[in-house]
Amino acid sequence: MTRLFKFAGMLLIAPLLAGAVAQPRAGDVRCTRCHPTETEAYARTQMAHSLSGITREPPGSFTQAVSNTHFSIEVTDSNEGVRMVQHLERDGFSGSYVPTYAIGSGTHAVGYLIERGGHLFQSPICFYAGRGWDMAPGYEQNQRPDFLRPVTADCLACHVGKEQPVMDSLNRYEDPPITAEGITCERCHGPADAHLRNPVAGSIINPAKLPERARDSVCEQCHLSGEARIANPGKQLSDFQPGQNLEDVFSVYVFASSRDPSQPGALKVISQAQQLALSTCARRSNGQLWCGTCHDPHRQPTDAKAWFRARCLSCHGDALLRTHPKPNDDCIGCHMPHRPVSDGGHTVFTDHRIARRPPAESVASTAPGANEDHSLVAWQEPATALEQRDLGLAEIEVGERIKDAVLIAHGAKRLSDVWPGFPKDVALLTGIGQVLLGVNDPQEAEAVFEQAIQAEPDNASNYLHAALAWNTAHDPEKAIEYLEKALRLDPLLEQPYTVLAGIYKEENQPAMVHMTYERYLKAFPKSLEAQRDVKESALR
Ligand code: HEC
Ligand code: HEC
Ligand code: HEC
Ligand code: HEC
Ligand code: HEC
Ligand code: HEC
Ligand code: HEC
After folding, report:
1. CB-CB contact of 508 with 518 (8 Å)
2. Exposed/middle/buried for 360, CB within 10 Å: 0-12, 13-18, 19+?
3. Distances (CA, A) of 294 to 46, 304, 305, 310, 465
4. pLDDT tens-digit series, residues 307-364
């Protein structure tokens, strides 16, 4: 159920095109005076452009075959900037949206965010460098693409300098939702106030000088997606601050098999940290090798071949060149080739495993096959008291995604064992409730969701969960009561409308069905499904 709202997070990619254009950004003004070189060079990186206002992509149109949905995109320039309209049409219904934000620098792709009633939703289409407009990752096979997928703070955490989510909500934000667009200096250097008051070395974090685990955590907060990222009790992913270890805030879980260097799987997006850890270079250099050895976030190499060669030789030494087979000038061309990724659509990434001999092009996926071992392990264990809780939640999340009942059962067992230690932990309660519903014990599930409601009475999702349990328990009145509570707290939560309409259908109350769809359409006036539902329910 929480699952129902999360969405296929990540992205895609196509061949590399020219990088984004430098725009000095307001957030950095405070640093420019004393650090002009770093500020200017950073402004040229993709990270500085990871989210922005609407950028000037060409207009276009295409039809998604599986749903027969036609999309067209208009782009107009005005004094106020670029305005884009994304239009969709299916079965005679249509809708138009004006996106507010572009997500992604466009090196590989640009996605779009729609703002409505203080909520952010994702556009189902992307502009891809090299191949133009197409479905966004995760929507390729979608039978009813629309602009309804909530954009959670967890999605923004890796792409935005600073966002302002409303506590206990799924995708509601303060006005404005985003106060710093591209990734800011602070995301790697931590809060700058002390340094601005006393501008000397040591009054601000320099990631390169941190202890190994804290150093690696700075980049891992965004470059290690793993299979699940589980926030510790009372934390959000975005609470992470440079200087901390990632596990102080959240734990990342990966398949145990993906940690075995003898089993090189296919590449997955956002797994540079995972791949690098598999390399002989990292395993044999006692923590000396990290992202910063090869990447300087304030410098874009003009000659990548020469830049990275110098990084390799900083450890391997010129002596290697005497014995190494020739030609040996383009180290990364042979040892870190660009490869297609297994889960990102038509995209290509750099192989960070630094293999002696590049593995064959298409090998098994990093996700183990259906009959293989799906055990999860922590990238780094959190505090002992949280180990079972975080792992249990990860097992349920991943188990539901890949439909592995054994993994879900393991997770449920773990959570029920540690439950007494976390009586008001909404994530844990939701996880247990979800499993109980899955094994068809709606009464027990409802009791657990009720505790989640007590812990977070303003969170609409908790009432939705309880309503689903009441509905499964064949108590439509209670279900309706809870669905209405959910909608009172958040009228832009989509699912309660369709569940409500479903209940009235079962109850054979066509007038209520129609009225519910009208409310649904009022909340989402351009939703193609809502338009269709209103029209069809009126016919009866
Ligand atoms: C008034 C001048 C001034 C301003 C403004 C300033 N800095 Fe500095 N910064 C310094 C000085 C001086 C040093 C020490 C340089 C040295 O020792 O080589 C420094 C060092 C640093 C270091 C290295 C710290 C270390 O221990 O290695 C970082 C990182 C840094 N600044 C980031 C920033 C950021 C980010 C901003 C903007 C939010 C900023 N600075 C604004 C003057 C400034
Ligand atoms: C707040 C999240 C975040 C943090 C922290 C972060 N990255 Fe990134 N990084 C991104 C995103 C998002 C992109 C892709 C930007 C795009 O193309 O839209 C990216 C892109 C990159 C790229 C591609 C080239 C470029 O110009 O941006 C490199 C290299 C990179 N990151 C290295 C690092 C390193 C090294 C660290 C740690 C010192 C780090 N990143 C920390 C989010 C982050
Ligand atoms: C765990 C951090 C993380 C999360 C969560 C995340 N991204 Fe990304 N995203 C990245 C990184 C890092 C890159 C750069 C590609 C890479 O390094 O694999 C990227 C790349 C992209 C790109 C392509 C940018 C380019 O290089 O042209 C788009 C578009 C994008 N993400 C959209 C999204 C959307 C939409 C969501 C939420 C639904 C999301 N991302 C969630 C980290 C993240
Ligand atoms: C993606 C992470 C990241 C971002 C964003 C970032 N930095 Fe850095 N910064 C680093 C790392 C890593 C180092 C250490 C480089 C090294 O010594 O290898 C560093 C070092 C520095 C230093 C010390 C340089 C030196 O030679 O000692 C300064 C100054 C600095 N950064 C300023 C900035 C400013 C200003 C911004 C924003 C405009 C910024 N950084 C954004 C990661 C980042
Ligand atoms: C921080 C130091 C460091 C850096 C930087 C580094 N390596 Fe390594 N690399 C090592 C160590 C240590 C080994 C293991 C050597 C040994 O056991 O004899 C190694 C091993 C290798 C191997 C053999 C792999 C195997 O499985 O047998 C290759 C190939 C390699 N490195 C290529 C590169 C390339 C290419 C670069 C630059 C892109 C690079 N390395 C950068 C430390 C480094
Ligand atoms: C041994 C050198 C080396 C290390 C260490 C390294 N990278 Fe890279 N990285 C590269 C090379 C080479 C490229 C490709 C650059 C190019 O094509 O211009 C690259 C590309 C990238 C990109 C662009 C997207 C892609 O996959 O092509 C990102 C993001 C990135 N690295 C992140 C990281 C992060 C995060 C770490 C630490 C976990 C890291 N890298 C460690 C060498 C390294
Ligand atoms: C044309 C492709 C190619 C280029 C370019 C290349 N390598 Fe290699 N490298 C190889 C192959 C193939 C092997 C494995 C040789 C073997 O197994 O006998 C290898 C082996 C290695 C090893 C392991 C050597 C050992 O004795 O254990 C290292 C380290 C290494 N390369 C580093 C580098 C560095 C650093 C560069 C750039 C200066 C580089 N390579 C450029 C193909 C290349």
Report:
1. no
2. exposed
3. 16, 11, 12, 9, 47
4. 999 999 999 999 999 999 888 899 999 999 988 766 555 567 888 999 888 766 544 3
Closest CA to 336 of 356, 319, 306: 356
Q: What are the tens digits of pLDDT across the range 291-313?
A: 999 999 998 889 999 999 999 99
Residue positions counted in the chain: 540
- The answer to whether the CB of 87 is under 6 A from ligand 2 is no
Asked whether 219 lines ligand 2 (CB < 6 A), one says: yes
Contact present, 486 and 496 (Cβ < 8 Å): yes
Q: Which two tokens stand for residue 430?
A: 């939701």
Half-sphere exposure of residue 439: CA atoms within 13 angstroms, side-chain side? 13
56's CB contacts (< 8 A; 6+ apart) are: 75, 77, 82
Ligand 3 pocket, mutate which of 105, 122, 126, 159 (most atoms under 8 A from CB): 159
Q: Which among 243, 242, 268 has a CA at the least distance from the CA of 254?
A: 268
The amino acid that residue 536 corresponds to is E
Nearest-atom number in ligand 3 for the CA of 46 is: 26
| Structure-token pair, residue 174 | 């303060």
Query: Residues with Cβ within 6 A of ligand 3?
Result: 9-11, 46, 103-111, 122, 154-155, 158-159, 222-223, 225, 269-270, 349
Rg (Cα) of the chain, in Å, rounded?
Answer: 25
Q: Is the CB of 316 under 6 A from ligand 6?
A: no
CB 271 within 8 A of CB 366: yes
* Residues 476, 505 contacting (CB under 8 angstroms): no
Residue with tokens 């990186």: 45
